Amino acid sequence: MTRRIQIRFCILLAILLAVPLPNAAALDQAALLRQFIASRRAQRADGPAETTDPWADPASSFGHLPTDCKNPKGSKEADRITALPGQPPRVNFEQYAGYVTVDEEHGRALFYYFVESPYDAASKPLVLWLNGGPGCSSLGIGAMTELGPFRVNPDGKTLSRNRHAWNNAANVIFLESPAGVGFSYSNTSSDYVRVGDERTAVDSYIFLLHWLERFPEYKGRDFYIAGESYAGHYIPELAAVIVAARKRTGKDPTNLKGIFIGNPLLDDLNNDKGSLEFLWNHGVMSDEMWNNISEHCSFGPSDGSSSSCDEAMTAFYFNFAKIVGNIYWYNIYAPICIQAPNGTVYSSSYLPGYDPCINYYVTNYFNSLDVKEAIHARINTRWSNCSIQVHGNWKKAPLTMVPTLSSLVDTGLRVWLYSGDMDDACPITATRYSVHDLNLTITKPWRPLPHVGGYIQQHEGGFTFASVRGAGHMVPSFQPKRSLVLFYSFPKGVLPPAVSLWQP
């Protein structure tokens, strides 16, 4: 078997491992990220990546961007949500949603959902939340299954309150990006096939300029960018664009203070190694398989031309494919959603506070005409959690975000990473390799979080890495209280209180 055929076979199996449930509503970040990582592995095997890298010198690449909005359109009042259909009584905070045009010529517009804090919103910071994929919705995933103020109930029509919503601590924007994801759109069809990291970062930056004109009371407010998964690319890149504009003009309309990223995809090679090592550490891979992979794979650029590494990886994936249907890649100990022949869905087992079928409920909710009208979305849009079209056409993504993170730390931005320790998509093992690559001196050593909800460590420059015990890829879904405790500490730049390992 030739090297190319071996690699294609390995990648085909990797994609099969993440086949979504038959209903398109089940397509989620896990399925798309699995396919994306596999396709990137194939690209590395085919030859060297392109040499141009806009993130090597962001000031030159993005310093020309504007720092204000010349012709703002839309209004805050037009975007105000009177009430979401099915929301519980006594909602005590303001909600807004609508479109912001980021490219007039192409007619490219991004959709957002914004929730203010119910507690002294005027004093709370502003946070932009981004989900990954690439190609998945921050509205459907972040807002309605993780950290937003509501969760969609199984009837797909009503909402319940999330007691551990992050708008308890901040005013939060959920942005569907890029165009083609969720309700975001373009009037130029080629925009859906010319997608990638660079344009996504620039569009998000232009969105912020326009949004701040619509909500001028947030100009000068402390601003943070948070998210997870492929937002391990989105967030450092958007921050780099903001810093580049600041460096070139001396202006920063967003007043960016820091970034907060969960279970991030930071480095392709570290993620390959970290994922396999995680599965071995958790008993999903035999010692013999792991030893064979370790012996023949360096997890460096040279693996692309190594037939022995191809064979070792293929041998594992071939065996793993036999059992993966019963394992959720985003939390290897969580139940999975099962679809019955009659179309009904149910959880394979019980995990308190977590429903693996919630993506179905969310899809039904946002395709309701009443909901689309209430949030000022285009009613002719068939909403889905993730866009296969956007995902399948993704281009121009750097292999590693470590240099960008390092430069952001050097600028004085607060950079915190956190990892749910049950995730194999972007596992804690992979993130730790990338943290090691930053080569930052430890200032506050590894110690448990309150009630041993995880562990935390701080490095020079304030860079912080934390684990969240018992959480998968979407930490606020699996451990909402623990994630909120960590998020409360982040804007303050103060670690959660230390606890003793010995508690009588």
- Parts with pLDDT < 50 across at least 5 consecutive residues: 11-24, 500-504
Give the tally of β-strands.
17
Largest sheet: 11 strands, mixed
Oligomeric assembly: single chain
Helix content: 25-40%
Could you say which structural class the secondary elements and strand pairing correspond to? alpha/beta
Shape call: globular
Protein name: Carboxypeptidase
EC number: 3.4.16.-
Keywords: Carboxypeptidase, Disulfide bond, Glycoprotein, Hydrolase, Protease, Signal
Pfam family, one: Peptidase_S10
Describe, in short, the structure shown.
By secondary structure, the chain is an alpha/beta fold. It has helices at residues 3-16, 29-46, 58-62, 76-79, 138-146, 197-214, 231-249, 268-281, 287-296, 307-320, 358-366, 369-374, 388-392, 402-410, 428-438, 475-478, 480-492; strands at 95-103, 108-115, 126-130, 150-152, 159-161, 171-176, 185-186, 195-196, 223-229, 256-264, 337-339, 345-347, 394-395, 414-420, 442-448, 454-459, 464-468. Helix 1 (3-16) runs antiparallel to helix 2.
Describe the model.
The chain has helices at 3-16, 29-46, 58-62, 76-79, 138-146, 197-214, 231-249, 268-281, 287-296, 307-320, 358-366, 369-374, 388-392, 402-410, 428-438, 475-478, 480-492; strands at residues 95-103, 108-115, 126-130, 150-152, 159-161, 171-176, 185-186, 195-196, 223-229, 256-264, 337-339, 345-347, 394-395, 414-420, 442-448, 454-459, 464-468. Strands 1, 2, 3, 6, 7, 9, 10, 14, 15, 16 and 17 form an eleven-stranded mixed sheet that branches. Strands 4-5 form a two-stranded antiparallel sheet. A two-stranded parallel sheet has the order 8-13. Residues 11-24 and 500-504 have low confidence and may be disordered. The chain is built from 17 helices and 17 strands. The longest helix has 19 residues, at 231-249. It is 36% helix and 17% strand. It is globular. It starts with a helix and ends in a 12-residue tail after the last helix. By secondary structure, it is of the alpha/beta class.
